[in-house]
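Appendix B. Extra example for self-study. Work through it before the problem class; the solution is given directly after the inputs so you can check yourself.
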Amino acid sequence: MARVLLFGRLADLAGWRDRMVEASSLTALRDLLATDDAELGEALAGPGVQVAVDKAIVRGEAFLAAGAEVAFLPPMSGG
Amino acid sequence: MITLTDQAFEPGEILTAFCAGRDETGAVASFTGLARAEKGAALILELEAYPGFTDAAIAAFAQQAKARFDLQDYRIVHRTGRIAPGEAIVFVATAAGHRRAAFEACDFLMDYLKSRAPFWKKEHGPDGERWIEPTAQDTTDAQRWD
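Solution. Structure tokens for the complete assembly:
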């Protein structure tokens, strides 16, 4: 199981911000989330959305160990 | 040191504590950012951070500032959560041997915090809520240092 965190407008769009999902790779996770909510799936793949696995930014595919934390980060606004 | 807090804070107290016990510093510069009411358009500002990620990103940038300006020390406090107009959002203090480095490092850190730091900002106004992106001016300010 991976813990999925959504931030900013992504959480508003999805209606949740913290959820456990059974997935062993980022691609599998994206597919599951998009199957559940197509609009969210599209937003997660949208421009400027970065992904962090265990608080480190990753680009492209990543394998998810049990208990991995995956965060989807829309463009950052600064404080 | 970096603190993210969802509680209101008193900038003067933090500055006093930061200045205490320094006999080789010479210069401390500080900046406090307050939430603006925007003439009633902004009732509440809401700032979201990713604990453990946001503070680590700020710390990595602050270490760059420390090396670039030969700082002795720095202190950053940033609010998260719901912030009312007039409340402090951000406090930055820098300590250096001489004033120029302290001023410039404080400016440098603020330009980063305002434009590139990992926060997500929402304004709650009388007509509803909206997510805010960095302004063109924030981006231009940050690019001065590139």
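Self-check: DSSP finds three helices and five strands in chain A. If your reasoning did not lead you there, revisit section 3.
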